[in-house]
């Protein structure tokens, strides 16, 4: 890979990291709704959307753990939306993702 | 090469711009929605050569956008690469059904994406060369009576037949399935044994229409499974079928041959056309451990070619029509399957 592209990728990686605090805040808000039992269909769609975007970007930009976890959680979100209802394990998965997002911010 | 990239995430768009630019294609337009993409296409003073589409987008998803792009006559064969985190087979199938040429899953390797865009560029060049040739042939046709301007090896474009995608898309589809480890499918190849004779006695249009008719007959008889079918030139078709019981293939050659026979195909001069279609042995994708291989495809093709050789070794007095009649009888009495096994190249 040429130096120019490497530099650009680092820049884009920085932008992605800068976008993470906002995504993390949304994840925290959605997790609160999940635990309070007030999560609507729109909230679940938003959760799916955020997790999907993290899945797509994180791995490509070198955040392998975050990307892999987001990929597995995306499958769970899709299954949850399809069948309706969710478990404590599912809520724990969202907490774990928030932790990985924080790790990427701190990296 | 002029590229249009569509993704609702601006970071991905920026990434695509840099990666594709580094691969040697700096002329890239970035838009964030399907609606904006259509508006851009309609108002662009020059034609786009290639499209990079995300699938998961609000309002109009990338698959619907792909379908709509294919409706523009100028973009019927332009490369469309889906770049998406959706790795499920249902999305891959829907994308190729909508007309996608290739499918790249996120997270993607930046160097690999560059390679895939380069392949698309090669396809654009080939299409441009084919168009030039086509214009030249049109001009010549007024002056010279050409019997068959379509080359026998040409990958004739087949539209409007269920499950049919072009050769490159088929290979990309297969590669995508093997990358994802989505096994459990099988590939089967069909070969028109007397394609040289049909080609020799047909006009270009006649030959193309015959290929389309044969594709339709195969497609109709594969409908019991989920499948994609592709024409590879030289009278050769390949299909990938999902969720099939292998035994159901036993009757397929006879059934397809009967469908073709029922079409009562004729040459331009009204003479009856005899189509001798043979089928190779179905090859299970799961038998191969390599994750990025077209080996099952080649094995299926080899098997069909072997079936043609077996057919040619039959005594000359056992004409094709009598063989079909024999198969028809065997299908009525399934206890004896010697002939249908022969047609399948076992």
TrEMBL record, chain A:
The modification Phosphohistidine is found at residue 52. Gene3D superfamilies: HPT domain. It holds the Pfam family Hpt. GO terms for molecular function: protein kinase activity. GO terms for biological process: phosphorelay signal transduction system. Keywords: Phosphoprotein, Two-component regulatory system. InterPro entries: HPT_dom_sf (IPR036641), Sig_transdc_His_kin_Hpt_dom (IPR008207). Residues 8-107 form the HPt domain. This is HPt domain-containing protein.
